[in-house]
Amino acid sequence: MLAAAPIATDPMNQQALNDRLDRLADQCVKCGLCIPHCPTYRLRLDEAESPRGRIALIQGLAQGRLADSPRLRDHLASCLECRACEVACPSLVQVGALMVGARALTHRNNGPWRRWRAKAWLDVLASPEGTRVASRLAAFYRRTGLARLAERTGLARWPGLGAYHRVARQLGTPARPASLRAAAEATGDEVELFLGCVARSAQPGALAAAQRVLERLGYRVRVAPGQGCCGAMHRHNGLPEAADRLLGRTASAASGRLMIGIASACVAELKSDPDIDAREICRFLADLAWPSDLRLRPLERRIAVHEPCSHRNQLRDATAAYDLLRRLPGAEPVALPDNAFCCGAAGTYLLQQPATSRALLAPKLEALAELGAEILVTTNTGCALHLAAGVREAGLAVEVLHPLELIARQLGDEVEHPVRPA
């Protein structure tokens, strides 16, 4: 399974939504085999913070036996939707679909102001214009010394403000579709490069690297003007209808072309639409037959590989980055210990649940320090931001990159590295 199926939330379908959640929850036999795989249960040792506990809460809510209370919402909101439990479940319970539906249900129960505020915030995050404004504000925040002031005064350690501070420290200059044009010498197939929304500011270097590598392999790289967000952030925050609209626009923009994505979470969401032929770029390039005259320069480095939950548990392909990096002569890609557990980024989770997010990141940073790698790669945009912020705060001399940035470097292309320690 990939992204959770769309769930209608209009008033006429309210009972249908409750019934569907009840049926999905009833597939869980409460065996508990999922519990050791849950990061939040591992952190808190609380049954309500486990997949089994949350499914029981969702079923109680759907059946009307439990009220939609702040305490219940807290337990649902703390779920990372990493779906490690779904992979481990012998009964094939669709935990991702359950969480998407439950959040749609609780979102609908909000008052008009709270519903509008939640959607407006996500709409800003998901729009190319919004990410451009956020990047300019982040640059102003750093350039004027406000970021340093927040660190000196301790404001950067406040849970809410600190989460935005950490992201603002990492945002780069957004990639623009107009800057991505097919090379004149490229005569092969045309592919659509998916820019996404946050990745335009968080990983412009990775997008540029993807274009360069694809063109060196003979592809004509195109970016349709109508491209936007894949809709994943809206879906996982209880707005499936808005997510479907965003996904539909991207499908129309692609016009049936093969769509290549650098962000594993976006690719997983794109794959949920049958009208989009989406491929994750590491797997796509790793499986290609490269021209014999295209040689990569050696890279005698140990490379720590972070395996995002979106790659492991949604795309179900944990080896893609390793397979691509093995094309680099001399490179030693090694797994970041405890890759089976979420780093705490989880889409918008790093902003909404900053304390839990940082608690889950801490063991990753400790393992990275012990590993002795100078480079850390990941294929998830949110994870890249989160890991890079942690690396900077821990004072580690580690670059955080997308695998494509390393490949492009060894082709001789100079690529900007926006996700790195400052």
- Classify the fold: give the CATH topology of the domain at 302-410: Rossmann fold
- Beta content comes to 5-15%
For the report, how would you describe the main beta sheet?
Answer: 4 strands, parallel
Sum up the overall morphology in one term: globular
Could you give the count of β-strands? 8
The span between the termini is 38 Å
CATH architecture of the domain at 302-410: 3-Layer(aba) Sandwich
Q: How much is the average pLDDT?
A: 86
The parts where pLDDT drops under 50 for at least 5 residues are: 1-12, 177-186, 413-422
What's the CATH class of the domain at 302-410, please? Alpha Beta
Order of helices and strands: HHHHHHHHHHEHHEHHEHEHEHHEHHEHEH
Q: Indicate the radius of gyration in whole angstroms.
A: 21 Å
Based on secondary structure, the structural category is: alpha/beta
Q: Note the total helix count.
A: 22
Summarize the helices and strands and which ones pair or pack.
Blueprint: H1 14-26, H2 39-44, H3 51-63, H4 70-77, H5 84-88, H6 95-108, H7 112-126, H8 128-143, H9 146-153, H10 159-168, E1 190-194, H11 199-202, H12 204-216, E2 220-222, H13 232-236, H14 240-254, E3 259-261, H15 264-270, E4 278-280, H16 281-286, E5 302-305, H17 309-314, H18 320-325, E6 332-335, H19 349-352, H20 354-371, E7 375-377, H21 381-394, E8 399-401, H22 403-410
Kindly summarize this structure in a few lines.
The chain contains 22 helices and 8 strands. The protein is of the alpha/beta class.
